Amino acid sequence: MVTPSEIQVEAEFEEVAAKKPWGQVCKDLMRKQPLGTFGLAIVLVMIVTAIFADYIAPHDPIQEDFSAMFAEPGHESYPLGTDEFGRDILSRLVHGSRTALMVGFICAIVGATLGMVIGVASAFFGGLFDLLLQRVLDVFMAFPLIILALAVVATLGPGIQNVMIAIIIPFVPQCARVVRSNALAIREIPYVDAARALGFSNSRIILRHMVPNVMAPYLIMLTTFLGQAILLEASLSFLGLGVQDPIPAWGLMLTNASEFFEGSPWLAIYPGVAISLSVFGFNLFGDAVRDTLDPKLRSR
Amino acid sequence: MSKYARFALALAVGAGLSLASTGPADAETPKRGGVLNFVVGSKIPSYDGHIEGTFGMIHPIRPFYSSLIRINPQNPQSSTDFHCDLCVGEVPKGEEGGTLFKFKIRDDVKFHDGTPLTAADIKATLDKIVFPPKGVPSARKAFFKAVESIEAPSPTDLVIKLKFATGSFIPALAMPFNFVYSKKDLDEHGYSWHRTNINGSGAFKFKEHVKGSHVSGVRYEDYHFKGQPYLDGFKAISAPKLAVRVQAIRGDRAAIEFRGFPPKQRDDLVKALGDDITVQESDWNCVLMATPNQERANFQDPRVRQALTLAIDRWGGSQHLSRIAIVKTVGGVVFPNHPLAATKAELVALNGYGTDLKASRAKAKELLAAAGKSGMEFEFNNRGVDQPYKVVGTWLIGQWRQVGLKVKQRVQPSPPFYATLRKKKDFDVSIDFNCQSIINPIADISKFLGSAGNNYGNYLDQELEDLYNTLLQTGDEKKQREIIRVFEKRALSDQAHAAITLWWYKINPHRSYVKGWKIAPSHYLNQHLDQVWIDK
After folding, report:
1. Are the Cβ atoms of B395 and A258 closer than 8 angstroms?
2. What is the pLDDT of residues B364-388, one digit of tens each?
3. Distance from CA of A75 to the nearest CA of B (A)
4. Concatenated DSSP letters for B387-455?
5. Which strands sit side by side in the sheet containing B35-40, from one edge to the other?
6. Where are the domains of chain B?
7. Which strand (E) or helix (H) includes residue B514?
8. ipTM of this model?
9. Is A240 in contact with B320 (Cβ distance < 8 A)?
10. pLDDT tens digits, residue range A262-285?
11. Which of A103, A119, A289, B511 could lock onto B255 through a cystine, CB 3.0 to 4.6 A?
């Protein structure tokens, strides 16, 4: 049931969308959200690193150098040392950012977008369709994120594509549930009735008139998912279910390091820091986006 | 002194040296009681020893079963010292020129369900292994090519007749995978029943299998070796990650891992635990290889297969990989240092074993270009076991990259990995292994026959089959050696049906309170646990 306060919140969303262009929103973000800006900076550094990995990495991340196995950080040719195959840790970290970002962005965008469409459709049609769909989503949401992802990878098998599917599946119901609650309020706003009265098709009403108005919760979920996806990919790779050697990936670097951690701790420290920093960056950025776009929080 | 005798002596001396630290313990009187916890790094594809070839099955399941004969538990390094398990007295010598073996079967053995064990059960078991009906898999059928008939004229008599005399028969019979099943079970439930059910006559009775967690067994009070087993029970804990297994021993959650640790982990444990850890080491009758699937068009051309083996730097790998993995020795089809094994001079004449790596890789590139496969992309199927599969797999991909091949790795847990090799056959090139128990080169090299139950290359090479049949019927050691060299050249070099990597080296650090277990040159041997005891 939609409450009057929800309708009021949506009206505020409309107001924000009408008055503030995205450029202004970004400027506000930097001014009002220094932590968010720091997070954004980390994210941007990651993106630049991933795009220009071929130029930034000093070595081929797959090239083995058995004469330099377990080289310690500070080595003449390998500033962050080498792993058990003599591969350059720095180059593998740099190229690993590609894997992390690719998985992160694809999973977050696909998961959040599918969730948004399902959420809006569920709210728009309501009735039995909504009831049944929500119960299906309840089933998916009953499983913890990592357990569901593990079950999917165990069924489909390891590999980067299957890992992405495994991460996307639990994201969809999460986003759908949040977006639905917003879409329920929007459904009651008169312009939706007006669109119906004008004879617009359901898909047009959903895609042209409702979806743009749930962008705020969508973006919040999207940024939240980015960090979660990176962490999940690293977790699945750590468990041997994700990306496979010799492809550089942070979680994989961690799992390989587990055998040699006692004598060569840098094998685990650097990928661990990379994972933590990137998730930290995405979370800070996501929090800032939420604070900016969510009128309830903005007014505090 | 024959070469075999010298080899046996060398093994015995080696074992003696490696076991020096445990020597005094052997003189101690075994204590009764306690539960042995050990860690296992692989899952159990099925309980059926006749179709499986993995330590993931043999370590937790072998203690539930008996076999007709077995290697002497006190002298497992020997390749000739066999003892009766279900038979009486000494292992029989072959009669009629070594073609007839008469076994007297014990009359005091019962299966765990109470059914008495007779010669008929052993005959039914061996029939399943040696003469499986069409569609019934038997991984070691090829080891028994010489067997003509198996008869059980009475409950205590078993007669096996061979088509020709061969020294490989008794070692093949002593393989620990030859679990003796009840004829009643086979008749009533069929040949697949033992894949998911256990009813043996071994030292321990099956208690439970919690998938992904553990298998446990309890002492079988009616075990036919009176007074044994010494343990109240055992718990085989599943721990796929090496780091977890090492920490389990370090934290005394487990006392031993029967397969083997790399040198670095051995050193870490010894450094941390001092006298609480005992280390046993041995050469290992086990080797990893890359097997191309010859049903796939890309690998039907021998030039492509030769390129795969030519790209591998075995001599360099021996030096470097041995630091991080349980592999060490460069060798051909036969266990290194065995009298029938190739010498270094013989090895370097094979494709991929030359000491001029640049020349080998240049030749590999030429062969790929000639076959129209330069820069070929393919998928490498690997098993999700850290040591040494994933390490060697990653190394192989790096080696192939040096000749322009683009390889992706697919790593699977043991059950789907085996399904890929045996049923689906949906792989380009796969990690494969020839891990045998008793050192029995003539039987061991049957792995390279396309007709062998444990060959996954999907080819039939009649020339190899003919060579092997000739070898089987050759008694002269010198002649055997000559035939094996021709066999080896064809299998590894000319046809390159498989690219052998490095032979393994076994290192078993274990809690010093584990007594009675002696390292063997195989992680399959000596796992019945009836002689193991705990001194706590």
Report:
1. no
2. 999 999 999 999 999 999 998 888 9
3. 19
4. IIIIHHHHHHHHHHHTTT-EEEEEEE-HHHHHHIIIII---SEEEEEEE-SS--HHHHGGGGSTTSTT-
5. B35-40, B233-238, B214-219, B204-210
6. 3-255+513-534, 282-505
7. strand B514-515
8. 0.76
9. no
10. 788 999 999 999 999 998 998 888
11. B511
Query: From B395, which residue of chain A is nearest by alpha-carbon distance?
Result: A85
Query: Is A14 domain-assigned?
Result: no
Chain A: closest CA distance from residue B113 (Å): 36
Q: Are strands B277-292 and B429-435 parallel, antiparallel or unpaired?
A: antiparallel
Identify the CA nearest to B301 among candidates B414, B459, B444.
Answer: B459
- B268/A contact by beta carbon, under 8 A: yes
Q: Which of A69, A163, A245 is the best residue to mutate to test the B interface, defined by the most B CB atoms within 10 Å of its own CB? A: A245
**Fold of the B282-505 domain:** Dipeptide-binding Protein; domain 3 (3.10.105)
Start-to-end C-alpha separation, chain A: 26
Of the two residues B210 and A24, the one the predictor is more confident about is: B210
Residue B265 sits at the chain A interface (C-beta within 8 Å): yes
Instruction: Look up residue B462 and give its amino acid.
Output: Q
Nearest to B243 among A158, A246, A259 (CB): A259
Interchain contact, A66 vs B316, CB within 8 Å: yes
Please report where in the chains the tokens 């220009």 appear, as a residue.
Answer: A52
Q: Specify the pTM.
A: 0.76
- pLDDT tens digits for B137-175? 998 888 898 999 999 999 999 999 999 888 889 999 999
What is the C-alpha to C-alpha distance for residues B528 and B158, in angstroms, rounded to an integer?
23
- Pick one of 3.30.572.10, 1.25.40.10, 2.102.10.10, 3.40.190.10 as the CATH number of B3-255+513-534: 3.40.190.10
pLDDT for residue A194 is more than 80: yes
- How many domains in chain A? 1
